[in-house]
Design the sequence.
């Protein structure tokens, strides 16, 4: 079939249309055309998977290149570049601003300030902000309380361990000074 030769050069829109047409033939078309439609669908899937793998490899190579480029840069420059290339979304802005406005606060206070009921949300949100920018910020250290996991939040946060009069131990979160300076420089923080 000549159409099979054209699949690798088709753009996404044309592939989607061809896939829809072949799916319709398989479901509702004449028996005589179904085998060819199935073969075309198989080739379309193979091509889409090939493109996905190719794109994943390009992204991986780009991330590695960025990691190497940023490796020896000071934190200020890494944060600057990370947030220039991947500007924070509105929800991320909220969490960064809450963190900056409440230095030394524990996860429960930070969560409450951000409008969340769960302290675990603090690590999840700040960690997510750092994880998607890890290739700029540097490799996250291992989590000392959860084996095999990284502590992404530590890329932007200094943790202060406290003990109150009753003996209760808690951890305060403070945006790293260089990170805060970079975010202010970008206008993300005031």
Sequence:
């Amino acid at each position: 079939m000549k159409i099979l030769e054209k699949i690798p050069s088709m753009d996404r829109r044309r592939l989607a249309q061809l896939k829809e047409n072949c799916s319709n033939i398989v479901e509702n078309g004449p028996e005589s055309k179904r085998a060819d439609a199935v073969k075309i669908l198989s080739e379309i899937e193979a091509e889409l998977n090939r493109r996905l793998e190719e794109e994943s490899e390009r992204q991986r190579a780009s991330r590695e290149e960025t990691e190497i480029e940023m490796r020896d840069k000071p934190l200020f420059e890494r944060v600057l570049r990370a947030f220039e290339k991947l500007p924070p979304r509105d929800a991320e802005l909220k969490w960064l601003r809450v963190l900056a406005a409440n230095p030394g606060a524990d996860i429960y206070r930070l969560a409450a300030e951000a409008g969340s009921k769960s302290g675990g949300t603090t690590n999840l949100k700040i960690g997510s902000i750092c994880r998607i920018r890890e290739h700029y910020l540097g490799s996250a250290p291992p989590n000392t309380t959860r084996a095999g996991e990284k502590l992404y939040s530590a890329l932007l946060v200094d943790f202060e361990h406290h003990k109150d009069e009753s003996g209760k131990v808690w951890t305060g979160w403070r945006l790293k000074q260089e990170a805060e300076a970079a975010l202010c420089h970008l206008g993300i923080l005031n």
Q: What stands out?
A: Residues 2-69 form one domain. The chain has nine helices and two strands. The chain has two domains: 2-69, 73-185.
